[in-house]
Structure prediction request, 437 residues.
Amino acid sequence: MNYVNKLLKACGYDTTLHEDEWTRKHLYASGIKKWIANIIPYEVLNRSLKESVESIVTLCECYNFYNNFPDTIYTPDYGDKWGVRANYIEINNRAIAQMRNNSCKNGIISSIKILPAIPPSAKSWANCIILSQIFPNIYGDGYNKGISEENSIYGIKLNCDYSKNIIDFDIANKISPIEQFKAFNDLAHFRGLKTGFRTVISADQIKICRTNEEDETFNWSNNEHFELFINEHVKLINSGFEAIFIDSAKHIGGYDMGNYTGVGELPKYEQMQYILHEIRKRTGKTTLSFIGEKSTGDFKRYENLGLTSGTAFIEPDNYDEVKKWSMEFKYNNNYKPGIEVSNDNDSGGRSYEDRLNRINNSLFAYEYPSDKLPSFMQMEDIFPLRYDTNTHHLMMTNPSYSTDGTPESHWENLFTKDDGREYNKKVAELFAHALNL
Prediction:
């Protein structure tokens, strides 16, 4: 089924596509690699869904324009071990959702709209978008709240569909939530991007929904809960996602619990091995990438767990240090430690120059492109946020920055303006030099 066409029709558009002149005027190119740069996010988020699809098709690396979106889209082929060299870019799809007055919805549509502004994958390695929210958050899902009111993405519900912040349930009778994810994944894959999502494993941060009953706190010793966790993630992988970022993964099996900041029991080591094995087995996909938060240092521990990579081990500001570790792991295609430009706990304040230096080290600190280490970035590393907020604040809260109650005003005020545009241009220049390696 053509899920992109189904989404267009559900939103009231026809499915005949035309080359997008706005995209041509804002094009940034490196050989056949094309994307939109030298922008502020408002300029793409304020476009219609139809315009965004036309923009994506206009950016195709092929030489013919598709007047109708293709029926069959395959994930970009970087081999089964693509995850050990990828750049993972986390997009807070809740923060860029459509906020009108106190409601929050359509984060998946906003994620589609921002796709043209994500740098494409290179010849030798993939860029992979990680979506911050998929499942409903425990409190206040579907609403924005005050700037200081907690509304954490880190607390999720299972067994009750997907987040109202992300899915457009107004059209769910025309295109189901899982089909909306499939449309997003087809469009991202058409752009040559891999996709994934963030999940949590701390038991007290997960609730199980029951019809006409109170929510039940998750328990790793409960076989029903355990199976539900696996199956919920299998469904999402079957919708086209190929990567899962696992929050608190370092502490699986009770490891280094003195530094554990989550809430509740974690899966045992053997349980997590089984979970990752079963997700691979039940989906039949050999290409999956599992990334563990801070799961580096004891490399064999995490490789044997089934992870592809982990964050926060290598000093990201030091080019020589990054290159040294790329050479150390050049022959290991099962697991590589990664470089953090920034993470979901980033509290802001890092200069543009420091961010650009970290991106530079992520893209170029190796002897050969095949030696490249994976890297981890946040939305803010490509599109700088306004000065009085930061990545972690937007993970913990869900404020609207609209001055008139409209989503357009929120999008305009969530990010920096002129200096953000100039920064985005400099990020584009770094990627442009790397894309044909």
